[in-house]
Structure formats: C-alpha cells, structure tokens
Specification:
This protein is mainly alpha-helical. It contains 5 helices and no strands.
Length: 107
C-alpha cells in the first residue's frame, strides 16, 4: 500500500475518533453512510466525465477526489486498505498473477 493512502486512512480515522471543528472529513462522516455513498457516486461520475473530455491533470485530480471519498466511506463501513489489498492478493496472487478467471480485474 502506498504511504500517502495509508496516511490519509490514518488521518480519516483520527478525525472520526477526535472530531475537529470545520473538518471536511468530519462533515462527511457526520452526514452518514447514504450521503457518503452518494458522494462517492458523484465523484465516480466526475472521473468518467474527466476521462472522456478533460486533460490528464484534471483526470488525476478527479481520481484523487474519488480515492479520498472512498477512504472516508471505507472508514465508515470499517473497511481498511489492508482488507482491499488482501482481496486483490486473493484474486491475483502476491506476484500479481490472476488466480481467478472470473475476477473483474483479470485481464
């Protein structure tokens, strides 16, 4: 897992455990799961739009927004980055070789 994603995961956890006034992360967490899920959907649509009509830099910015909002939703649902990594390893093996022909990521 990348250090930056781990840092963001830790920061989101810290905000959940010790809320900070004016924190955007806390406003997302306080809004509840349905609102967080909707926000992830909105960000995913923005990634699609960027992929079809925007510059590479704009695409990167939108993907970064999606990653962040996914991390907030994951924290709310008690899903850690390690859980996602473990699932990817299960599907593809530690060396990245596919272990399942049915995986959406297999290719």
């Amino acid at each position: 897992m990348t250090p930056m994603l781990q840092h963001l995961e830790s920061l989101i956890k810290a905000r959940q455990e010790q809320p900070q006034d004016g924190s955007y992360t806390n406003s997302l967490l306080d809004a509840g799961t349905p609102s967080m899920a909707q926000k992830v959907g909105e960000e995913a649509v923005e990634v699609v739009i960027a992929a079809l009509s925007q510059t590479k830099i704009e695409q990167i910015e939108e993907i970064a927004d999606l990653f962040y909002h996914l991390l907030v939703l994951m924290r709310d649902r008690e899903i850690a980055l390690d859980d996602i990594e473990n699932e990817l390893v299960r599907r593809h093996g530690a060396a990245g070789g596919s272990t399942s022909g049915t995986s959406a990521l297999a290719g």
